[in-house]
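ATP-binding protein: structure, please.
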Amino acid sequence: MIIWLNGTFGAGKTTTAGELVELIPEARIFDSEYVGYMLRHVRDLPQVRNFQQWPPWRGLVVETASQLLGYLGGVLVIPQTVLVEEYWTEIRTGLEKAGIPLHHFLVHTDQDTLIHRIETDGVEREARQWRLDHLPDYRDALPWLSREATTVDTTGVPPERVAQIIAVDVLPHRA
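Here you go.
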């Protein structure tokens, strides 16, 4: 199965993913951003603002996840922001066609907490600004994200607890 952690940049997806793999022994993180990094080296791809705009990225994420699960089994935890509904639908449909159970979570926090997390994160200033610049895209995506994902409000909740909430939802018999 796949546990997909969606949400805006700086919401805590990667930290939560790390906690989840500690709770679910057969789980491992698949960082689908590396598929985008790989594609950046391909000549003649059009210039885009975000590698998710390349159709091969979406197809390769589905195929790579499918191959990994077929080879390793278990659970893939994918901490990846997807804010374009069309892209999400393409990924979800591809995973469904591959017969892979998918649990989609929206890691969400209130605006003040989110801005505080971004501004106090240890990443370089340029990365913090990039995250802040993408907040309007996230706000615009919230209506469809709220329909497509189970929302987990992380406001004032430590990452360990967020991971426990998700693990209980996905694997209730283990709680």
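Notes: The longest helix spans residues 55-72.
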